[in-house]
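Could you show me some protein's one-letter sequence and the numbers that encode its backbone in two labelled lines?

___
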Amino acid sequence: MAAISTLLNFLFPPPPSLFVTAMSVISIASLANAGFSEVRGKHLSYSKFWNVNNNDKANGNKKQQLKLSSKTGMLLLYTPAFLAGAASFLVFPDEGFRSTVLQSAVTIHFFKRVFEVLFVHKYSGSMALESAIPITLSYFVSSATMVYAQHLTVNLPEPPINLLYPGIVLFLVGITGNFYHHYLLSKLRIKGEKEYKIPKGGLFEFVICPHYLFEIIGFYGFSLISQTLYGFSFAIGTTFYLLGRSYATRRWYLSKFEDFPKNVKAIIPFVF
């Protein structure tokens, strides 16, 4: 009881919604499982692991995969979530400052991702449709659920400890750091190049996935802005997934580049 009382200092009361409660549990469980799968070598087929199923086929697995170009696949991942955020202003208008900030943060986050796909990133592979569909659904459902969970807090008393403004700061740090390191990645290749290189600059000197680190920071920004159980559940689940994905990414770089600096960690400088 003491633990629950402490949590309620930071959170709105859990909503009387079976859907939101179930999604809070599902988000942590499914994303944590996806992270552990990455560590075990069972990757979602995008980015550096776009051809993982081709390798499986070479080892005797005859399963055929429908493929999208990486650019098309990434647009599929982020566009529905962006539209969900934008539509939320029409579905839930004028529900107070906190709700407006959350809706804005969700919309800006996924608009940035669509903008990067169109104008920043350089692609060299493809994406398996069976990987694109669950990621697309995850982003879309999480965005819609986060906004809906906030809607359910309307007319409830604010949590005793207000984390809205620290959340705004975390969100801005996260989205800025993520964009900066995506920009650095885009500069690794000149036009026409497709091979991977060891990233340099920024926090790439310390970790191989600083863009993931800042994405995690951004999602904790969402959770502090919202102060809902679902917001924190999705942030925790995302942390598990990106820890696993970054571990797998570092392992991939170590296998591909003999000169990869061993002191460069996966996602947390000097630690992991």
